[in-house]
């Protein structure tokens, strides 16, 4: 048997919020991809990690250090961070799609159940 669900707003409003979340995820994913290309280009410039710079000498090995990415695959810290930003956008899209679909299904089921209850009351 199912559990009681109380929704204090309309399913349509929740669907709109979920779609907005999906849109924000799409925007984040696309922005992360654009910035990733720019970051990669800047990493190749000598002025980003200048030889003899105290900060760069300490930071650069960690920045390019071995780690795992969001999938658990081997990567470097700089690449894993950029992949994680894109992954967050993709996850927001997935969550938005899931919530919108679930609410549409809930709404249809709720309306059908109301119709069935009304019919049952008329039969008795």
What does this structure look like?
The chain is mainly alpha-helical and 124 residues long. A two-stranded antiparallel ribbon has the order 1-2. Strand 1 and strand 2 form a beta hairpin. The radius of gyration is 24 Å and the shape is rod-shaped.
List the helices and strands and how they pair.
Elements: H1 11-43, H2 54-63, E1 66-68, E2 74-76, H3 77-123
Label this structure with key terms.
124 residues; mainly alpha; 5% strand; rod-shaped
Strand content: under 5%
Low-confidence stretches: none
Q: Give the overall shape.
A: rod-shaped
Order of helices and strands: HHEEH
Short description:
This protein is 73% helix and 5% strand. The chain is mainly alpha-helical and 124 residues long.
